[in-house]
Amino acid sequence: MTKRALITGVVGQDGSYLAELLLSKGYIVRGITRRASYPHTQRIDHLFKQHDDRDPATQFRVTYADLTDSSSLGNVLQEFEPTEVYNLAAQSHVGISFETGESTLDINAIGPFRLLDSIRRAGAKDVRYYQASSSEMFGASPPPQSEATPFLPQSPYGVSKVAAFYLTRMHRIAYGMFASNGILFNHESPRRGLNFVTRKITLSISQIVAGELDRIQLGNLDAKRDWGFSGDYVEGIWRILQHSEPDDFVIATGEMHTVRDFLGKTFGILDLDWEDFVTQTDRFLRPAEVPALLGDATKARKLLGWKPTVGFDELCRMMLESDLAAKGLTLDQAKAKAKLLKPRRRGA
Ligand code: NAP
Ligand code: G4F
User: Fold this and answer.
1) Ligand 2 midpoint to CA 24 (Å)
2) What pLDDT score does 1 carry?
């Protein structure tokens, strides 16, 4: 039987990579997106070119639904009849969750409840459900963090994800649903949203080299994160739902770096000293911080056979190269431009 996957958050970073992966495996894929006042499907436009959604038998289609709108979720479940549901949709920015706590909780915590409840009410017992849980749930718990580490969330986002984690578990225990959590540590890519720290840095470097920006303003440079590649992590997500039983899994690289390290590595690729181009500002500090995240993915390695393929250095290079390419620059051309830039920035 052909597998049918429903992906919420399909226009997001992970949604776009997961859609590619599932289409390559022969799945029929339905994405949902909420209405936006301006097109924001850049991450999946290439999939629309490959799959004509005017064809009734198309392998890929996107419909409007919203995690804050139960009826839209019920409608798409009834009409599409998925065999697997991947709930990736969220207000995913931790810093912004301090400013939009109520809507973050609505989308990220009540949203998964609406989806799980709709699946249960539809009597779709065989549907496999994936919840995009997060290492942000560990919050102030010291590293390394595994499935056994207590949750100590530090933000409205973290609290919302803890609620969704337990709602997913509760549906597994109470109703026997195949409902699993992936506890994913930070994962990045050239498709990362522009206001997450990694992408903000690589995009800003490309703008500095192109002469469009002088300095980057950043907040806490001492924060430590376990950064992996989104393309690797969607493979982990898929494997979690193919496992023989529903369960909760940490997905992480097991390597930790500071924001400073990320700056050093990416600026270093162009032989630049990051301290010449970065201003630290309180504007980007959060009311509470998660100081250090380092994942122990032993369980996923053992039970799912999952492991990351892209390391920290390759990730930095991949993201920087992509942002430079968007400015029409190869790495060599950018290095040449950076040489001219360096003395000017140092006031020479
Ligand atoms: P992302 O790029 O921000 O994508 C999230 C998607 O959710 C966006 O496409 C967004 O749509 C959609 N969305 C937001 N509110 C919605 C609503 N009310 N109804 C329907 N869709 C809505 O995030 P990501 O990096 O791909 O992450 C995917 C999931 O994994 C998220 O749940 C995130 O919290 C979680 N997670 C991410 C990481 C990470 O490091 N990337 C780590 C752990 C967990 P719009 O484009 O319309 O805003
Ligand atoms: O890139 P970030 O915004 O990611 P954060 O807060 O770790 O959250 C990401 O990872 C979570 C998994 O642990 C996901 F659940 C979540 O959806 C998201 O994908 O910030 C990383 C670190 C933080 O400590 C932040 O304070 O970088 C620090 N930082 C310093 N200056 C900054 C900045 N973060 C942002 N976004 N912008 C800055 O200017």
Assistant:
1) 31
2) 82
Q: Active site includes 129?
A: no
Torsion from C-alpha of 48, 49, 53, 59, nearest 10 degrees: -80
Catalytic option among 72, 92, 97, 134: 134
Q: State the DSSP string of 133-174.
A: EEGGGTTTSPSSB-TTSPP---SHHHHHHHHHHHHHHHHHHH
| Main-chain dihedrals φ then ψ at residue 231, nearest 5 degrees | -60, -35
Cα–Cα distances in Å, from 131 out to 73, 116, 220, 261, 270? 15, 10, 29, 31, 39
Q: Can you list the residues of the chain whose pLDDT is less than 70?
A: 342-348
Indicate which residue's Cα is closest to atom 47 of ligand 1: 34
Q: Which domains does the chain have, with CATH numbers?
A: 4-188+227-251 (3.40.50.720), 197-225+257-292+312-338 (3.90.25.10)
Beta bridge partners of 166: none
Q: Is 233 among the residues known to form the active site?
A: no
Ligand 2 centre from 196 Cα, in Å?
Answer: 6
Q: Is 286 in the pocket of ligand 2 (CB under 6 A)?
A: yes
| Best probe residue, ligand 1, of 7, 10, 14 (max atoms within 8 Å of C-beta) | 14
Q: Would you state the pLDDT for residue 123? A: 86
Going by alpha carbons, the residue nearest to atom 2 of ligand 2 is: 196
Q: Which residues contact 171 (CB under 8 A, 6 or more apart)?
A: 116, 120, 129, 177, 179
Q: Which amino acid is at 85?
A: V
Is 157 among the residues known to form the active site? yes
- What confidence score (pLDDT) does residue 234 get? 99
Q: In this structure, are residues 11 and 44 in contact, taking their beta carbons and an 8 Å threshold?
A: yes
